[in-house]
Amino acid sequence: MRITTRGRYALRASLALAKLSNGGSPVSINQLSEEENISSVFLEQIFFKLRKAGIVTSVRGPGGGFCFAKPPDELSLKEILDAAGEETDSTNCIKHSLDCQRMGECLAHGIWLDINSMISNYLSGLTLSSVLQRGINYCTESLPPKALQAENTGAPREEVYLTHKE
Fold first, then answer.
1. Is 159 among the domain residues?
2. Is residue 140 part of a domain?
3. Report field, pTM of the whole predicted structure over 0.90
4. DSSP state, residue 13
């Protein structure tokens, strides 16, 4: 799985919008651009996709900008990445499994399906609000102590951690 710059920026801009829109007031592309240091032209392209997918709505005129179409506690990270056009499949064989000549004999296929399911469930379980509530410590809080220990010592990790705390 590779999240492109567009996907990363869509997520960052959505988090900034959730943070800056006090009570659902519109936030301009320029405000989001300044807050996240992302080109306003690129943000316009991203928000076009988000609006088309029904994630955000736009308000024209002075004081206009973008608002979420539903509350941030109901918007999952998966919805945002999907709206931005991101693929969250771990391998190409998942997307093209019907064309696979090894289907039926490939022992790894089930592993890829499980990984895709874990990633999808993880991203679906995280909302914009839950990420904002975790604040700046989000990255380190979501890793179990064993993973932090391996990360700090440079030792290889033995397990993949795809769960999150509520």
1. no
2. no
3. no
4. H
Say how many C-beta atoms besides its own lie within 10 A of residue 24's C-beta. 10
Closest CA to 92 of 77, 102, 78: 102
Instruction: Give 17-28 as a DSSP string.
Output: HHHH-GGG--B-
Number of domains in the chain: 1
Which residues lie below 8 Å from residue 9, measured CB to CB, with a gap of 6+?
A: 36, 38, 42, 43, 46
In the numeric block, which tokens belong to residue 74? Answer: 């109901």
pLDDT, tens digit (0-9, with 9 covering 90-100), for 118-159:
988 999 999 999 998 887 555 555 555 544 444 444 444 444
Local structure of 58: helix, strand or coil: strand
Positions of E strands within the chain: 56-59, 65-68
Paired with 76 in beta bridges are 127
Q: Does a structural domain hold residue 143?
A: no
